[in-house]
Amino acid sequence: MEHRIADNYRIIADRVAAAALRSGRPADAVGIVAVSKTFPVEDVQNAINAGIRVFGENRVQEARDKIPQLTGDFTFHLVGHLQSNKAKEAVKLFSLIHSVDSVSLAQKLSLEAAKLGGIQDILIQVNTSGEESKSGIEPAAATELAAAVITMENLRLRGLMTIGPLEGGETAARKSFVLLRELRDRISGAIGQPLPELSMGMSGDFEAAIEEGSTLVRIGSAIFGSR
Ligand SMILES: *Cc1c(COP(=O)(O)O)cnc(C)c1O
């Protein structure tokens, strides 16, 4: 088990590094979030023991169950949709929340981060594919949300996140990724601050995402196995 996850991770890390070099960036320019949703806590502990440090979960409850059982040096990101009533729990558990998609959620997160005396790092999730099943704000509304977020004292806006389309293969995926990068550049100009992170790319499309500028890939099944 331990070796399988570590071996998978090493293969993915090599492919990530190679894609970063192809995109004209250093081999270590792209971070890997190991998405452990649905996998047992033993698998996550084995991954930590093998040196993996950054994990992703898509549900607050699942993270809240797993995290207290783990030991070692690790951090968790929230990659799934977040409801406002879970904001309080989320700021305690996650070093980066990838899925902020409304002003009201951002306000709640800032308030809860303030209560803890901290600053919460966040990304704005954008629906770049137009698929209805996807959460995330519409591209046309993202600048306004970013402008609101940067006025919130206990949030730090680090960039944008998207989920590639289910349909349409690599061509459609690349279109989504290019859209997110261009949107990031526009928003960054509009709000007058850099937005260094682009969270895009999963097991099936991370190399295309990196070639289009991803700085964070969210990889689940290619590391932990099929769900
Ligand atoms: C599950 C999930 C991933 C990882 O998906 P894989 O295809 O298993 O790599 C990435 N991002 C989000 C938002 C997810 O929910």
Number of helices: 9
Q: Determine the strand fraction and express it as a percent band.
A: 15-25%
Biggest sheet: strands side by side, in what order? 7-6-5-4-3-2-1-8
Biggest sheet character: 8 strands, parallel
Description:
With 227 residues, the chain is an alpha/beta fold. It has nine helices and eight strands. The protein has helices at residues 2-22, 41-49, 60-66, 87-93, 103-115, 139-149, 169-191, 206-211, 221-224, and strands spanning 31-35, 54-57, 75-78, 96-100, 120-125, 155-161, 197-199, 216-219. It has an eight-stranded parallel beta sheet. Strand 3 (75-78), helix 4 and strand 4 (96-100) form a beta-alpha-beta unit. Helix 6 (139-149) runs parallel beside helix 7 (169-191). The chain is globular and about 45 Å long. It binds pyridoxal-5'-phosphate (PLP). Pyridoxal-5'-phosphate binds at residues 35, 37, 58, 79-80, 163, 202-204, 218-222.
